[in-house]
Write a structure and sequence with these properties.
Distance between the termini: 64 Å
Number of helices: 3
Largest sheet: 3 strands, mixed
Order of helices and strands: EHHEEH
Structural class: alpha+beta
Strand order of the largest sheet: 1-2-3
CATH architecture of one domain: 3-Layer(aba) Sandwich
CATH class of one domain: Alpha Beta
Oligomer: single chain
Strand content: 15-25%
Number of strands: 3
CATH topology of one domain: YefM-like fold
Length: about 80
């Protein structure tokens, strides 16, 4: 996406948000591109990982795997061998 310097200045927060979402912004002065604003790869990877975790959260249930309250009645898997 190409934007002029004045347009970029006026809407800086919106353009930074777009870059955060993975878009590249090219800043132009009198029609000539003078700079590119690109997302940080590390931040982009972290954002994608977070989005995956949030999507999985809808389908996965986590339980306490270290709960020791049932150890007194646990048969040490003798019945499952």
């Amino acid at each position: 996406m190409n934007v002029s310097i004045s347009e970029f200045r006026q809407h800086l927060p919106q353009y930074l948000k777009q870059v955060q979402q993975g878009k590249e912004i090219q800043i132009a002065n009198r029609g000539k591109v003078i700079a590119r604003l690109v997302p940080d790869e590390q931040v982009a990877k972290q954002q994608k990982a977070l989005e995956k975790l949030l999507a999985w959260q809808k389908h996965i249930t986590m339980d306490d795997v270290v709960n020791t309250s049932d150890l007194a009645t646990w048969s040490h898997d003798k019945d499952n061998l």
